[in-house]
Amino acid sequence: MKIGYDAKRAFWNNTGLGNYSRSVISGMATFHPEHQLTLFSPGINYHSELKTTLQNKTISLFDLGNGLIGRAKRVVGFNNGSLDIFHGLSNELPIFNHNSRTKLVVSVHDLLFLRYPEFYPFIDRQIYKLKTLKACKKAHLIIAISQQTKQDLIEFLNIPEHKIKVHYQSCHPQFRVQHTEQDIVKIKAKYGISKPYILQVGTLEERKNALLTLKAYKDCKFKESFNLVLIGNRTSYCNQLEQFVADHKLKEKVNFIYKSTFSDFPVLYQGSALSLYPSLFEGFGIPVLEAMTSGIPVITSEGGCFHEVGADAVLYINPLNPKDLAEKIDLVLDNESLSKELIEKGKNRALYFEPENLMSGLDKIYKQLFL
């Protein structure tokens, strides 16, 4: 088949949606080289993680440019009848009148802007809703990143269930690389981590629930032996977090890492004793998968997509109850056999999300469009 991808995130976004886009493109090129892939993007940024993939002879690039020229190129590029499938990888499809033989697919990651509107500016909510709804109506098939996202599409946008397929994502291949003790010592020194530590990764915003983590950590019996490391982009929510740390004299025990390098994440995970992810709601919850892949026990929130990712390989807590989290943290840190059990279960669970397995599933989804 000839498959086109909206690759702008793959070329220009270094984190979440960019990682997802690169994993789909690289995975399809690696495990299904029988397909010819065309990558569409407004400008081509030769992202380091795509260099090897782009050497594949089955891949061609289509630079859309910008402005009027870009719009003209979209019409030509998408309407020349050469594509069997065009796949928008990030909640949207280009605005164009596509060739009738081309099947349109869109990946929808979450509808958080509708479920938690209070966390998004009004204008942003309207733009996100318009783009997502238009893409879903235009698409022949919608790929939801989780069962939770599928249910949200049905509930909030009234999308017919038969139009939606659930297809999970993998985490970055860096998390499958085993690092040495020396690597861990260096990374701890780089970020000023002086003790064994508990880790939480994710943008430091209200929905990620780091304040609950701090409240739980304050009451943990192991806080004298383990630091708490919070990694994520700084937001105004951090003022509350920093004030809580100051008020409860935790400054020497809590490490805030606002600026970090993504390539350091696997080492930081592997150096930790425990990974926390008490988020209120997610479309998928990639840090849970990253931690399991890294061989670290995980505590995350009950409900939503978290059970889809963690199954029976992680511990679950009420994300509104700091006492529940504190008790689970102490339970894992005080029980070596439980910690080892969670690690082994997590590694086995992570295999379900291996790229080869997921790309085989995506290939089947594509082929079903022509049955």
Task: State the CATH superfamily name of the largest domain.
Answer: Glycogen Phosphorylase B
Supply the number of structural domains. 2
- Radius of gyration from CA coordinates: 22 Å
**Strand runs, count:** 13
Q: What is the end-to-end distance? A: 14 Å
Characterize the biggest β-sheet.
7 strands, parallel
Structural class: alpha/beta
- N-to-C series of helices and strands: EHHEHEHEEHHEHEHEHEHEHEHEHEHHH
Shape designation: globular
Report the average pLDDT across residues: 92
Structure description:
- The chain has 371 residues and is of the alpha/beta class.
- The chain has two domains: 184 residues, 3-Layer(aba) Sandwich (Rossmann fold), CATH 3.40.50.2000; 181 residues, 3-Layer(aba) Sandwich (Rossmann fold), CATH 3.40.50.2000.
- The protein is 43% helix and 16% strand.
- It has 16 helices and 13 strands.
- The strands form two sheets. It has a seven-stranded parallel sheet, sandwiched between helices. A six-stranded parallel sheet has the order 10-9-8-11-12-13, with helices on both faces.
- α3 links the parallel β2 and β3.
- The chain is globular.
- It starts with a strand and ends with a helix.
- The model has no long low-confidence stretch (mean pLDDT 92).
Give the topology, please.
Elements: E1 2-6, H1 8-12, H2 16-31, E2 36-41, H3 51-54, E3 59-63, H4 67-79, E4 85-88, E5 103-108, H5 112-115, H6 122-138, E6 141-144, H7 147-157, E7 164-166, H8 181-190, E8 197-201, H9 210-218, E9 227-231, H10 238-247, E10 254-257, H11 265-271, E11 274-277, H12 286-293, E12 298-301, H13 306-310, E13 315-317, H14 322-333, H15 336-350, H16 355-368
Parallel strand pairs: 1-2, 1-4, 2-3, 4-5, 5-6, 6-7, 8-9, 8-11, 9-10, 11-12, 12-13
